[in-house]
Design brief:
Radius of gyration: 32 Å
Number of strands: 6
Strand order of the largest sheet: 4-1-6
Strand content: 15-25%
Helix content: 10-25%
Distance between the termini: 90 Å
Structural class: alpha+beta
Number of domains: 1
Shape: rod-shaped
Order of helices and strands: EEEEEEH
Number of helices: 1
Length: about 160
């Protein structure tokens, strides 16, 4: 999952992200999204545009409760946990995921949330589908039965 945000820089300007799924209650993913431009500690207010993606670390932040200007590359892996709870955020059988973003300073703009996923489907049961030749033989057989029934001469019975 990648997060894209703009505007803020530095202490007191960040976005928190909490994750809730059908198997887990709300858990903190990060508390430092958007605090720095992909980990750079240089910048000015209003000049920041950051998005997680190519070249970013796919591991989740070591301490999801760090607030303010902390390193956070806005690139997360929901198949992993974090230092607070090693259990993956997404579990087998989950039917929904909810992400809650909060900006305490009200000056960050989360403008993008991007997911990339793969799914594994197991135990797929397929019923056999007749081949076209099977249908052709069935039609020929029905045609022959119909033809022979029509050609049959009615028998006369004398009483």
């Amino acid at each position: 999952m990648s997060l894209a945000s703009s505007y803020s820089f530095g202490d007191g300007q960040y976005t928190t992200v909490d994750v809730t799924t059908s198997s887990t209650a709300s858990r903190p993913l990060t508390s430092a999204a958007g605090g720095n431009d992909d980990g750079s500690f240089e910048g000015v207010n209003g000049a920041l545009i950051t998005a997680g993606g190519i070249g970013d670390n796919p591991l989740n932040p070591l301490n999801p409760l760090t607030q303010g200007a902390s390193y956070d590359d806005e690139f997360y892996n929901l198949a992993l946990g974090n230092s607070l709870n090693a259990t993956p955020f997404l579990q087998v059988g989950d039917t929904f995921v909810e992400l809650k973003t909060i900006n305490p300073s009200n000056d960050d703009n989360v403008f993008g949330l991007f997911f990339s996923s793969t799914f594994q489907i197991g135990d797929v049961i397929t019923s056999p589908v007749p081949e076209p030749e099977t249908y052709a033989m069935l039609l020929v057989g029905l045609g022959l039965v119909g033809f022979s029934a029509r050609r049959r001469k009615p028998s006369l019975s004398l009483i």
